């Protein structure tokens, strides 16, 4: 390299500004070194590489036996009368490592058989093909032009190549502040190197028990859409919401998004069942009813009701309310119109009627049309022909849902399934603690829901709130919390094609895509759905203003 610098500077008037000067050298590693960034070059070459920056050169390799003129002249050099100051650099002088630690690394390097071979190979020179080197040092072949030997140590640029016996200590010290995987990797990369260092540090941090207990939540998985039902009122979602300390039950059809709202004087299972029976008697018994894990829905009384009325009851995992997205969207919609009707002192029945008869965004039909196959008459002037039954555009609705789901799945990925008996940590969902609790998988209830045993209790959790526990010495090296590859189980939905974020249906997104802004004022009257008395079982439930 010094000869190249001398030649370019000696003939500066000819080389400066010239277009692509071909420079031929017999030093093969110099070609690859010059093609990398300046920071990856050895310190003793960085100053020389800086001096050739003003020149446009193209460096190529040719054996010395073929460079007849240059080889001949190099054997008879002229006397050097130059007074140029020579600057030398030492990587170890710039490395922030104590002398005691350097001596420990030197000793470990000498005692490591693979590093002894690597040191010999660096001093001897590297062959042209990786299969010509020993298997122990083959991982270093890709960085052979960056690895140097100095004072009993191996360096890759400015970083020390650590022998095998010193790597556990490095991983422990890099993780001293419990800063997380990426921070530990950045810290180690600043000073040391060995093949596969990043993956080893990542595994070390992820298997650290203390960090596994106190960690951030996992990223959301890809969406599982509920398949569009074949007919109205085939799949129904139910949920309870509260306004001003008053409880209400919402019942929504997954096909039409038509929902009913009932006032609950209490939240007992018997009260909820009586309200649900009223709607089932009007619209028919659905095939599937989806609810959360509230005590009124997870008790024996509700299970007996489902068995007697012959419908399947599915419950979403605690904290995973988006699995019952239709009910959640209906709750938000019902809260908004009830508050507005109360503030304006308008008839809540007319408000509910308008909500049900408003065409859904992106579709040409309203919830009433998709459920009953006709428009309902309102206070708005309507032609008689418009009130006759018409076909609903269900296929268009399904296309919108698929596009919206694929857009949300753009940056999501599925978590691997867990096996029964696997040791895990579960994320707290009460918001009072951030510490993940140890548990054991007991059963898989659905596609992404698991029953786990935690502190003597059996809980149901979604896969997003479950993280595999790091293996322990008692588990053995072959313990695995999840199978390496497993086909996706058939679920309530299937993956769908990409889409733009312009239109997102209520089944996918909890917040409706377009809802008028609500000016919050102190409500003086809240619409209440009054419970029917036992004497009027067949009577219609009325809305009163209190």
How would you describe what is shown here?
With 546 residues, this protein is an alpha+beta fold. Helix content is 32%, strand content 16%. It is built from 18 helices and 18 strands. The strands form five sheets. The protein has a five-stranded mixed beta sheet, with helices on both faces. The longest helix is centred in the middle third of the chain and has 20 residues.
Provide a concise account of the structure shown.
This protein has 546 residues and is α+β, with helices and mostly antiparallel strands. The chain contains 18 helices and 18 strands.
3D shape: elongated
The residue ranges in which pLDDT falls below 50 over 5 or more consecutive positions are: 477-546
Structural class by helix and strand composition: alpha+beta
Give the amount of beta strand, in percent: 15-25%
Helix residue percentage = 25-40%
Radius of gyration over C-alpha positions, nearest whole angstrom:
36 Å
What kind of sheet is the major sheet?
A: 5 strands, mixed
- Number of helix segments? 18
Q: Report the strand count.
A: 18
What oligomeric state best describes the polypeptide chains here? single chain
Distance between the termini: 92 Å
């Amino acid at each position: 390299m010094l000869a190249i610098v001398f030649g370019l500077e000696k003939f500066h008037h000819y080389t400066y500004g010239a277009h692509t000067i071909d420079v031929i050298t017999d030093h093969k590693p110099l070609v690859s070194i010059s093609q990398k960034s300046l920071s990856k070059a050895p310190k003793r070459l960085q100053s020389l590489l800086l001096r050739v920056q003003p020149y446009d050169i193209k460096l190529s390799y040719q054996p010395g036996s073929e460079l007849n003129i240059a080889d001949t002249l190099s054997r008879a050099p002229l006397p050097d009368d130059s007074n140029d100051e020579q600057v030398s650099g030492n990587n170890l002088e710039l490395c922030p490592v104590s002398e005691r630690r350097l001596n420990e690394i030197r000793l470990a390097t000498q005692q490591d058989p693979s590093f002894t071979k690597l040191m010999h190979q660096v001093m001897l020179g590297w062959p042209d093909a990786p299969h010509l080197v020993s298997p122990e040092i083959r991982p270093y072949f890709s960085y052979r032009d960056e690895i140097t030997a100095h004072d009993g140590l191996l360096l890759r640029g400015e970083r020390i190549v650590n022998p095998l016996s010193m790597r556990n200590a490095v991983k422990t010290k890099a993780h001293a502040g419990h800063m997380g995987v990426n921070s530990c990797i950045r810290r180690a990369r600043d000073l040391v190197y060995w093949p596969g260092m990043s993956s080893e540090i990542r595994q070390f941090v992820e298997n650290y028990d203390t960090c596994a207990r106190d960690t951030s939540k996992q990223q959301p998985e890809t969406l599982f859409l509920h398949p569009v039902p074949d007919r109205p009122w085939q799949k129904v979602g139910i949920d309870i919401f509260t306004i001003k300390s008053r409880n209400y039950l919402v019942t929504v059809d997954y096909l039409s998004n038509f929902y009913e709202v009932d006032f609950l004087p209490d939240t007992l299972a018997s009260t909820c069942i009586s309200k649900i029976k009223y709607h089932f008697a009007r619209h028919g018994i659905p095939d599937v009813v989806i609810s959360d894990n509230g005590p009124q829905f997870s008790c024996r009384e509700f299970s007996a009701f489902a068995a007697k009325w012959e419908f399947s009851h599915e419950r979403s995992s605690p904290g995973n309310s988006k699995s019952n997205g239709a009910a959640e969207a209906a709750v938000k919609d019902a809260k908004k119109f009830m508050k507005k009707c109360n503030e304006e002192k308008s008839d809540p029945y007319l408000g509910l009627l308008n909500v049900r008869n408003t065409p859904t965004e992106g579709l040409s039909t309203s919830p009433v049309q998709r459920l009953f196959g006709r428009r309902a008459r309102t206070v708005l002037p309507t032609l008689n022909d418009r009130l006759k039954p018409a076909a609903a555009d269900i296929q268009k609705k399904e296309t919108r849902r698929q596009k919206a789901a694929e857009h949300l799945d753009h940056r999501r990925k599925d978590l691997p399934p867990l096996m029964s008996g696997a040791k895990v940590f579960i994320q707290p969902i009460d918001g009072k603690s951030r510490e993940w609790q140890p548990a054991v998988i007991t059963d898989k209830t659905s596609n992404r829901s698991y029953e786990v045993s935690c502190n003597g209790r059996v809980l149901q959790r979604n896969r997003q709130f479950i993280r595999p526990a790091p293996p322990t010495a008692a588990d053995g090296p072959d313990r695995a919390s999840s199978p390496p590859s497993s086909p996706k189980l058939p679920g309530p939905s299937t993956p769908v094609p990409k889409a733009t974020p312009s239109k997102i249906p209520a089944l996918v997104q909890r917040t409706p895509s377009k809802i008028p802004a609500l000016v919050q004022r102190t409500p003086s009257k809240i619409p209440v759905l009054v419970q029917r008395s036992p004497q009027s079982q067949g009577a219609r439930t009325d809305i009163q203003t209190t």
